Amino acid sequence: MVDRKVVVGGAVAVVAVLVIGGIAGAMVLGGGGGDTPTPDDGEDDADDGSDGGSAATPTPAATTAGDGTAANGTGNGTAANGTNGTATAFPTVTPTSAPTPTATGTPTVTPTPTAIPTRTPILPRKFEEREIELELRRMINDWRDRKGLQPFTNANGSLVKQINRMATNHSVAMSENGELVHESNGLSTGERYRAFGLADRCKFKKQDAQYIVDPENDAYQFEVLHKTYAGRNYEEGGETVYHENETAVARDIFQEWKSNPVYRDVLDYPEINRLGIGIELTEDNEVWATGNICEGGKKNE
């Protein structure tokens, strides 16, 4: 046995080279027979093989695998090179819990309002002012009939035609000025009745009362007004409205007159029996409407 001193990492380790063991190993590899080889009697037995022999192969240190067993051993935790060193297992790593994400509330999605399709405007000349007037008369008379009142009569009589001219004159003036007002051309409602020869003819005695309702003194009780549109989109009460024919236009005017408490009182007098209607339709599809009431003296007027 030859002792060699090897310096590893600054420390002296005694490595015992078992020559006999090496020779025995060679005999095993050779089949166990033959002469036992005799070591060379040279002056220096170099381990690096320079004398023609084989250099002694250092035994590698056992390497511990990641599972705690020696990488070159038998897996039972001992070093495979014959020493009694026990492989040190890696410490168990406790996994760090990932932080639980905070749930984010689902954002409220504001629905996109449905766009109202823009309808193609209808030329004003496609509408008949007379047709709007007749449809409006029919709606008002049906309403009065349901209330137990006599309908407005003689739509083609001379008196109604005269009232129509007065009402139309006012609707034209409002359209030209762009204002929905009771005064036009410097004349109030009562003064217009007088100018058209209707002030005395249209006044009436109120039932259950001892006074006369006169257009010159009680003008607000003789006239109703409205502005709307025909054949084009327009905004009303936050909604887009479109009147495609004369009936739709007449209905809009009627609803305004019926829902307005002042105008409703004008149209449901039980004593009156004539109604003049003036409709003016402009090139911008505006519809200006005026209604004037009267108590007719003769049945055929």
Ends: how far apart?
154 Å
What string, H for helix and E for strand, traces the elements in order? EEHHHHHEEEEEHHEE
Question: Strand order of the main beta sheet, please?
Answer: 5-9-8
Give the strand content. Answer: 15-25%
Mean pLDDT score, rounded?
A: 75
Q: So what's the oligomer here?
A: single chain
The Cα radius of gyration reads 59 Å
According to CATH, the fold-level topology of the domain at 124-294 is: Pathogenesis-related Protein p14a
Task: Determine and state the CATH class of the domain at 124-294.
Answer: Alpha Beta
Say which CATH homologous superfamily of the domain at 124-294 is assigned: CAP
Provide the helix percentage: 25-40%
Region (Disordered): 32-124
Biased composition (Acidic residues): 38-50
Keywords: Membrane, Transmembrane, Transmembrane helix
Transmembrane segments: 6-29
